[in-house]
Amino acid sequence: MESMVIQGEQRLSGSVRIGGAKNSALPIMASTLLGKGSCRLTNVPQVMDVSTMARLLTHLGATVESDEDRFSISVNEISSCRAPYELVKTMRASVMVLGPLVARYGEAVVALPGGCAIGARPINLHLAALERMGAEITIEHGNVHARAKGRLRGARIYFDVSTVTGTENIMMAACLAEGTTVIENAAREPEIADVAQFLIKRGARIAGAGTDVITIEGVAALRGADHQIIPDRIETGTYLVAGAITKGDVTVAHCRPEHSEGLLAKLSEAGADLAIEKETIRIRATQRLRSVDLKTLPYPGFPTDMQAQVMALMAIAHGPSMITETVFESRFIHVLELQRMGADIRIDGNHAVITGVERLSGAPVMASDLRASACLILAGLAAEGETRVARVYHLDRGYERLDTKLAGLGARISRTKERP
Ligand code: EPZ
After folding, report:
1. Three-class SS of residue 47?
2. Claim to verify: residue 10 and residue 158 sit in the same structural domain
3. Which of 228, 245, 260 is the C-terminal boundary of a domain?
4. Are β-strands 107-111 and 82-83 bridged in parallel, bridged antiparallel, or unpaired?
5. Which atom belonging to ligand 1 lies closest to the Cα atom of 23?
6. pTM strictly above 0.90
7. Same structural domain for residues 26 and 173?
8. Do residues 262 and 51 lie in contact, with contact meaning Cβ atoms separated by under 8 Å?
9. Does residue 249 lie within any of the structural domains?
10. pLDDT reading at 420 higher than 70
């Protein structure tokens, strides 16, 4: 297993280019199952989850060719409708092949993803919606088995909880359903609008993506199309925090500032100096930041995927801050590791109360999930001495060359193999 070794207290400066959004690339790749024709994708992030999705599509019978950030995927026929557990357990986003498979082929067998470090991660809303569209769902030996006699039927779907991949799964399935599907209380994340843009290029009839009501008129078939994946707003936020936590001067290029309003408002409230252009954000923090309170919410609220990273920043801010996690039930695992670095944090239910300290101290820590790993790297950048973050495979799932990009900003960071 590999670790990341960071020598802290190094001010970052310079410019970093943001890659494509992992959480847009994954559903878009899954949606290629919906029709024949070649789909050429660009600005695809080179991260492990994308490789896993490519392996899953190949397992199902797709032809997948890639060259750096460019992917060409065609699915003329499938050889299997089964997404096996060994693939699904490493990447829960595999569940997004469920909607396209049952919509186009009338059958899908997808291993239940199970929980993960941040919560139970149920998919009950995905399944209930597919049943309303006429699919017969059974759970057998840890697999979801979805069957549809003929085409799915359009339906009115109301999601009790705003679910990102649930909205995407049903939006994709509805593209080929008979009649109209209306999704109410749909998730509004920018990645959903990106998936919809790609589907519309392929001939789908979708209105309202990006709002909480999405209407899809089913069509008989979808054709191939080309698409450039939007920039990753969470990667954007992670590098902005890297600039702030090291009291540096960092420009994030090739991003979409309008997708990060919630985070930018908090960074500005904390006293960071932000210069925002059409596709770049420059952050400067010459002095210790002020503490701020925040609550994670579905988009356009403050993103849960930035909660851990901003907590690292608040750990050395001036004063007390309260962070409330409302999206996932156990997304505070990184707190225990930050405490090992000297952070003063108290957990009370889904609230974390942070009292900023002057300085964190470097320590050996353990990554537990993708964003917690990023949080610990950021804390290490600011801490006094050396920090070793173990199990960085979590990081590689969703960040492309994070160590190289940080080193390009002046960080003293390197990757090392850990003795087993
Ligand atoms: C997506 O996960 C993202 N993943 C997550 O990013 C992100 O944290 C999350 O949305 C919230 O923004 C991808 O897009 C691949 P949800 P998803 O369904 O869709 C409950 C990262 O770091 N729920 O929006 O799985 C659920 O338990 C990852 O890149 C149900 O109860 O999240 C949670 O409390 C981590 N039943 C809430 O909804 C369901 O059927 C939101 O979950 C589905 C969800």
Report:
1. coil
2. no
3. 228
4. parallel
5. 14
6. yes
7. yes
8. no
9. no
10. no
CATH number at residue 393: 3.65.10.10
Please give the structure tokens belonging to residue 1: 């297993």
Is the predicted pLDDT of residue 374 greater than 90, yes or no?
yes
| 267 Cβ neighbours under 8 A, 6+ residues apart | 240, 241, 244, 274, 283
User: In whole angstroms, what is the distance from residue 260 CA to residue 398 CA?
Assistant: 18
The answer to whether the beta carbons of residues 354 and 291 sit under 8 Å apart is yes
Q: What are the pocket residues of ligand 1 if the criterion is a CB atom closer than 6 Å to any ligand atom?
A: 23, 26, 93, 119, 121-126, 161, 163-166, 187, 304-305, 327-328, 370-371, 398
Q: Is the domain of 161 the same as that of 100?
A: yes
pLDDT tens string 183-225:
999 999 999 999 999 999 999 999 999 999 999 999 999 999 9
Strand order in the sheet with 351-355: 294-295, 320-324, 351-355, 344-348
Active site residues: 116
Two tokens at 19?
């890659």
In a domain, 40, yes or no: yes
Which ligand 1 atom sits closest to the C-alpha of 124?
Answer: 40
Give the single-character DSSP code of 289.
P
Residue 358: is it exposed, middle or buried by C-beta count within 10 angstroms (0-12/13-18/19+)? exposed
* Residue nearest ligand 1's atom 6 by CA: 305
Q: Which has more confidence, 168 or 90?
A: 168
Domain limits at 197?
22-228
Closest-CA residue, ligand 1 atom 25, reads 165
Tell whether 10 and 39 lie within a shared domain. no
Query: Could you tell me the distance, in angstroms and rounded to a whole number, from the CA of residue 340 to the centre of ligand 1?
Result: 28
Q: Report residue 247 as tokens.
A: 């009291």
> Closest ligand 1 atom to the C-alpha of 371?
22
- The answer to whether the beta carbons of residues 20 and 400 sit under 8 Å apart is no
Length of the chain (residues): 420
Domain annotation covers residue 144: yes
Residue nearest (by alpha carbon) to ligand 1 atom 22: 305
Containing 308, the helix (H) or strand (E) segment is helix 307-314
- Complete edge-to-edge strand list for the sheet that includes strand 38-42: 63-67, 70-74, 38-42, 226-228
- Same structural domain for residues 208 and 307? no
Task: Give the closest residue to 253 by CA, choosing from 228, 280, 293, 219.
Answer: 280
| Residue 239 near residue 195, CB atoms below 8 Å | no
